[in-house]
Amino acid sequence: MEKYAITNEALLGPAHGPYSQGLVCDHLFFTGVIGSTAEKDPVSDSVYDQTIQIFKNTQALLAEAGGSLSDIVNVTVYLLQMSDFDEMNRAYKEMLTERPLPARATVAVKEMLPGVKVEMVITAYIP
Questions:
Q1: Tell me, what DSSP letter sits at residue 97?
Q2: Is the predicted pLDDT of residue 27 greater than 90, yes or no?
Q3: What is the band of 13 on the pLDDT scale with cuts at 50, 70, 90?
Q4: CATH 3.20.20.140 fits 3-125, yes or no
């Protein structure tokens, strides 16, 4: 089994804790990502903006692993408030346009990092 970490601190900044920004294990790619950049954490108060940034961050990590957003197979979305579902979903649909769409679950959580309103755990298959 081949396993290695993927990082892009120039875009994402340093990790907020002891974890890999992205991890590749054989052909599988894993990440848990928020809508932040090295310059701004999070990018704004908007769930829409944070969701767009999540996919930009994921796209950058996937590119380093040899993949793209079209390789995503599963997404778990964590929202601070379910009332933000439509705003997150609007950005999600703009960023993921290829069919079939990934499988997805969305859950509301009680707390996140300060200012963070959406976080995603994303799995992709890198051919």
A1: -
A2: yes
A3: confident
A4: no
Residue 118: pLDDT over 90: yes
What DSSP letter does each residue of the chain carry, written as one string?
Answer: --EEEE--HHHH-S-SSSS-SEEEETTEEEEEEES--SS-SSS-S-HHHHHHHHHHHHHHHHHHTT--GGGEEEEEEEES-GGGHHHHHHHHHHH--SSSPPEEEEEE-S--STT--EEEEEEEE--
Token look-up 């976080």 returns 119
- Least confident window among 29-33, 34-38, 43-47, 56-60: 34-38
* Domain locations along the chain: 3-125
